[in-house]
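Thanks for the sequence, V.! I ran Delta(24)-sterol reductase right away. Repeating your input here for the record:
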Amino acid sequence: MSALWSVGAGLLLLLLWVRHRGLEAVLVHHRWLFVCLFLLPLSILFDIYYQLRAWAVWRLHSAPRQHAQRVRHIQEQVREWKKEGSKRYMCTGRPGWLTVSLRVGKYKKTHKNIMINLMDVLEVDSERQVVRVEPLVSMGQLTAYLNPMGWTIPVVPELDDLTVGGLIMGTGIESSSHIYGLFQHTCVAYELVLADGSLVRCSPTENSDLFYAVPWSCGTLGFLVAAEIKMIPAKKYIKIHYQPVRGLQKICEKFTEESKKKENSFVEGLMYSLDEAVIMTGVLTDEAEQSKINRIGNYYKPWFFKHVEKYLKADRTGVEYIPSRHYYHRHTRSIFWELQDIIPFGNNPVFRYLFGWMVPPKISLLKLTQGEAIRKLYEQHHVVQDMLVPMKSLEKSIQTFHVDLNVYPIWLCPFILPNNPGMVHPKGDEPELYVDIGAYGEPKSKQFEARASMRQMEKFVRSVHGFQMLYADCYMTREEFWDMFDGSLYHKLREQMNCKDAFPEVYDKICKAARH
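Predicted structure:
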């Protein structure tokens, strides 16, 4: 009973303190308090619900039968929209706060919301080495489903909550992308409900124009209802080699060299300053030295980027064997390094052992509860950006990131970009090696000003024929946007399929200049 009195008294004092300071001030300056007391427990409940649901669907084998029924319901909603006179654009009915993107889409309030409840794995075809899934299947859900069967997908983008639909309509990348390309390049077919309510399948040999136009279109050509993704055999471990490198030129040379080696199953770099980095290479294996196994995904383990930094501080190389699923989601617990700004003591051993099993909070819940004050604060003093630039421009790009942003760590992830039709392809006729430069955190550059600095970055990326990931804040004008992206196929299909009255143009959906 005394323990209950203590808890009650503590909560009362907390409420009085919140009332004294003001709820908004507490949420802005002591956000960790709200996150630890409310969002972490809520995130656990979310996970339990979705895991129980996925287990029930798997036990009852109900996904394929319900899929056809749900797709018909989507078609009915689209046809109803047409009967109503097609007065408003359509969009998915999924609330904006549920998406992993930090951008808050206001269009949901003005557009016709089409409810799409498609979140199941439909079929695993071992002969074709293809898995067929619905668009709301998450990466955590998919790897948990496939790995026990001995399969995985070639590109497993980092965070557990990233969905197949988001990765196709936007994009996705992983440290295996120097071999397999972006997430879209591992897909072999899409199924969409179009603006007229028809259901269409597209692949490189069937409705190929639509197949190549769908990636990066952000749901402005139709509603994705299923996708077929290549599978590859899974192995138990990833053998990781850690290599500290100093000096920007040496970092770029070493990273480029390792990215060109096809014997490396995985290549990744973490830059901790302008001239300090750790470059990691990995290979798939079923054998491991027991003394070197690191189950980095266990809740009490150090955050991965902090673990990697130890090799830099000690100035030594190292080899570890990380269980495959732990490796695929190695940055999930710390949301790369974003969680250190939300829970500053989150990597403390005491916190990890006592509460690490609750981490991370759902990004969707962070968005839902951030409030206008935090949103504006983040917009002006925080960046979350991924810029895709040719590998030959890596050194110049890092220098530009340093001057304009000065955010560390920086994530480096190589990928091969094939010369396929669509919005994103290399300048020449041949595939080209690119690199994703990811900057997440608070800029330390003294001249940083969100709009001006990001427009300067976007201008640089356009000048080297690079691309900006569209989940992030984009400040380009319409002309600048279509200078960065190839809109020829996209615009042709929007005209052919009567999309102009059904869906907004991708620029109007994602760019700040269009939304404000």
